[in-house]
Amino acid sequence: MAPGSFAKILIKSVVVSYFLLTSLNNYAAFIDEQLSYSRVKIAYDEKYESIVSKLKNLDLEVSGFEVLLKAYKYEEELLVYVRNNMEDKWKIYDTLAFCSSSGTLGPKVSQGDMQIPEGYYHINHFNPYSNFFLSLGVSYPNKADLKKRPSRDKGGAIYIHGDCVTIGCIPLTDNVIKELYVLCALAKNYGQTSIGVHIFPFHLTSYKLEYASQQMPEHAEFWSNLKSTETYFDSLQIQKKITVTEAGDYSMN
Fold first, then answer.
1. How far apart are CA 93 and CA 82, in angstroms?
2. Given its phi and psi angles, is residue 106 left (phi above 0), alpha (psi -120 to 50 degrees) or beta?
3. How far apart are CA 179 and CA 48, in angstroms?
4. β-pairing verdict for 170-171 and 158-161
């Protein structure tokens, strides 16, 4: 091997090692920072062993799992899925009940409409000092909302949170948000870069879609679009990447 080639390989190895170490330090810094808040520390102390046990029952380790959240407004339930971060298929971890609700079926359109959004989002904020005990931010409005909804002020600050009150968020009891918050924090801590929060008007069966579309035809096209991108997951529990077209529709890749 030429001396120059050996030097290049050595430099590449050092760079890779540096980025791996930096990533691990960033993960450790995240959980350490979160545990510096008293509410997160309380939640962690109460729920960590239960989380480890539930994951073990699903043949998962706390150091190598990911989380996916699917919410259904009509049924008022939040399905929590987990998977090994080296695999494609998701498994049900738990089904959580909303403890309050607001608005009606249909997407969020504007500030103050009391609507829980509908569409494909992700957690964009871990809030350890929330007014509602603990809260997980939802990335509304997304690109589809920005393209499809005519209102200039589409609103925001949508969270999954405790305290059982809502004007467009997804509320859970304080006891339930403790476990969900720690579960998501652990997934992020060990490398999950984006935790999906997918919100639907109802379970998208053909019967429910047909009936709801007859009752609220203004949303029929949008709901059909959601069904077209969600049927694959419902069948196989494998989540394909969802993108947004130039027209503001969801598309499965």
1. 6
2. left
3. 8
4. parallel
Residue 65 near residue 187 (C-beta atoms within 8 A): yes
Q: What is the chain's alpha carbon radius of gyration, rounded to the nearest angstrom?
A: 20
Residue 93: which of 63, 52, 134 has the closest Cα?
52
Q: How many domains does the chain have?
A: 1
Reported as a single tens digit per residue, the pLDDT across 144-202 is 999 999 888 999 999 999 999 899 999 999 999 999 999 999 999 999 999 999 999 99
Type of residue at 182: V
Q: Could you tell me if residue 82 is inside a domain? A: yes
Query: Would residue 13 count as lying in a domain?
Result: no
- Domain for residue 217, yes or no? yes
DSSP state letter for 74 = T
pTM of the model: 0.88
For β-strands 119-130 and 133-138, DSSP reports them as: antiparallel
CA neighbours closer than 13 Å in the CB half-sphere of residue 241 = 5
Q: Which domain holds residue 187?
A: 37-252
- Three-state SS for 173? coil
For residue 27, is it within any domain?
A: no
Work out whether strand 242-244 and strand 250-252 pair parallel, antiparallel, or are unpaired.
Answer: antiparallel
